[in-house]
Amino acid sequence: MAGNLLVIIGSGAIPADYISCSGFTASLQSGIDNSGSSPDSNITILYRIADASDVAASNYTIAQAGAGSLGVAAMLRISGWATGDPVNSTNVYSALQNSATPSMGNSALSIARAVPQLLLMISVCVSGDSPFTSATASAYTITSSDSNPSWTEVVDSFVNLYSGTSRLSMAVAYATSVNTSNITAWSATLAADTSGNADAYQGVLAVILQPTNATGTNALHSATPIVFNNAGVDVGTTGTNTLLAVSPTMFDQLGRGETVVWTEQIKPPATWVSETK
Q1: Strand partners of residue 70
Q2: Residue 116 is assigned to a structural domain of this protein
Q3: Distance CA 43, CA 209 (A)
Q4: pLDDT tens digits for 8-28?
Q5: pLDDT, tens digit (0-9, with 9 covering 90-100), for 108-120
Q6: Contact 205, 97 (CB under 8 A)
Q7: Which of 28, 126, 233, 243 has the fewest CB atoms within 10 Å, i.e. is most exposed?
Q8: Could you give the number of structural domains in the chain?
């Protein structure tokens, strides 16, 4: 459905060879480089807001950078999203372990949860042993002053990499919660089918916050205008305005202000008296 949030989670066995998918944006890229001959691993979280093309899509192609070989991937569709990076916070675990019962998780944390949220827990194991180790995950747990929510596992699988030179397993589980107390620890119980050389283990706890509409009302700013009279003095009221009436000066086509009719002056006839000598 258009407007839904699409999340792809993928893993690999080379630290910087992260997965990608056309139209998706990376929210998390975390790789562990154990140096030398020790196995390495990486985890990627991609997201996208679905549109009409996703409604019509029948498949998605996931690629991996470099010479890496993709391990396991999972995709989630989450309804009710709007826009932007959905992952509010993450905590990453990584270590080398050589055990049939490896541990996964971190403690002494303080991860805030402001609103109802979706929690993702991801665990990855890359084994170079012969025979290879596959680590399955269970007993997903977060610790807080509230109870641990109910977890649903969406994938717990493995694949052989590089023509059978290593094996990668990945598990992903999610839980929804309305609790808002800080998360102080998280963990998952792993079970490896063999033990031998040290294997690379990596895990991520991701907190996705539910988008919510703001509550309450927004008051518009109201201000009383200052009104000035014709003299520029604040009178404090709307008052009245008296229009100034002025008689206009009219001009004719020759541009004169007015026309004056001239009358020829009439002079009395002169009486001449001849001078007597």
Answers
A1: none
A2: yes
A3: 20
A4: 999 988 888 899 999 999 999
A5: 999 998 878 899 9
A6: no
A7: 243
A8: 1
Residue 134 lies in a domain: yes
Examine residue 195 and state whether it is found in any structural domain, yes or no: yes
Q: Is 255 left (phi over 0), alpha (psi -120 to 50) or beta?
A: left
Q: Which long-range contacts (CB under 8 A, 24 or more apart) does 260-263 make?
A: none
Q: Which domain holds residue 112?
A: 5-209
Residue with tokens 């992260």: 18
268 in any annotated domain:
no
